Fold this protein.
Amino acid sequence: MKLGTLKISRPVFLAPLSGITDSVFRLVAKEFGAGLVYTEMISADGLLHGGAKTYQLMDFKEAERPIGAQLYGSRPEILAQAARLVAERRPDLIDLNFGCPSRKVVGRNGGAAVLKNLTLLEQILRAVVQATDLPVTAKIRSGWDGNSEVAEEVALICQALGIAAITVHPRSRQEGFSGRANWDLIRRVKARVKIPVIGNGDVRTPEDGLRMFEETGCDAIMIGRGALGNPWLFGQILARLEGSNREALPSLDQRIALCLRHTRELVAKRGEFSGLRQMRKHFGWYTKGFPGGARLRATLVHLESLQQVTEVFRDYRGVWEERRRHLMIATEDIQHDNIL
């Protein structure tokens, strides 16, 4: 797959998620098979105002390549200036967000709000493409609401203005993340344009990923919520694409080990106070489906040190190993009695 001059070998990408897809998480996703990752969403206005936290969102490591920097805003000239600032860091591409449904973003006429004004969208695309030599991509929703589906029209505008690829999340802003993503819209967009189309929405299992490729004909898929606590999903989908089921489900021990590693790396980057607070949401995702998981999560979110986290997981593992051992013994006894 090519995005401009950029070649990408693995067509399964990690979506940009504000407050979540920091450098630590992106490196985890890359390790488990993500072919492309993105920075968290960056405010063009924030960059020009020189906010230190906003500037930090542009930071990435070489091991994260290929990586895209995602920008949002509503003023073409500001987005063009922001694109020049981002290009100085030399990410592999710049992605423009026209899909974020959050009130904070659309309240400033950014994200999905731009889909209500296609003249403005066209001005933004033209300004950013002219401002940088990097490939420029765009991420959109179906439209503002169910009565204003514009995805196909936007895709044609993107193609005409030199956009390298378009990501389609087939829900309207009004729908948010409710209901079911209408994958048929991805198929229709793909049929209308020659540039690569990336499908996004409701990919939570390897089977979902394979089905999205088959049903829509998209060139790649972008995974957001489905990868939270489950980065194994990238490799599992790649295996399905190769006709293999060799990527088995991770064991409880593997999930605990990765959660602990993620915690250590986040604490090393942010310090214990900030790192553990950032990890609280990840604790919930990594331990989803664990036996006794609710009680474990209630404990983890109140811990104040990495050592405490390590000890809690060690004790939890010990308790469930003991219960599993007793269960195996009981099962063997039942089987023995049945034989007799």
Summary: The first helix runs from residue 23 to 31.
